[in-house]
Amino acid sequence: MVELNRAVAVGMASGPAAGLALIDELASDEALEGYHLLPSVRGDFLWKLGRFDEGRKEFKRAASMTRNARERALLLERAGKSPPHR
User: Fold this and answer.
1) What is the pLDDT of residues 34-60, one digit of tens each?
2) In angstroms, rounded to a whole number, what is the distance separating the alpha carbons of residues 63 and 59?
């Protein structure tokens, strides 16, 4: 959990690519297996990098992992958003 928080902080300070690199290292951590915030944060970084399809998949995966109905709704709403126009 501490490492996930660190990845978020690094992503905020150094950009989403740096945060995503740390998240991807955590993906094999058995302690975080099944923890919905890992794909949620990964989806956020992917979205910020313009990798919208990948981000959408991560939000859906996170939604399927949480038991909290409100969190699930928010994650599915995020997965359904259209990418920003550039």
Assistant:
1) 899 999 999 999 999 999 999 999 999
2) 6
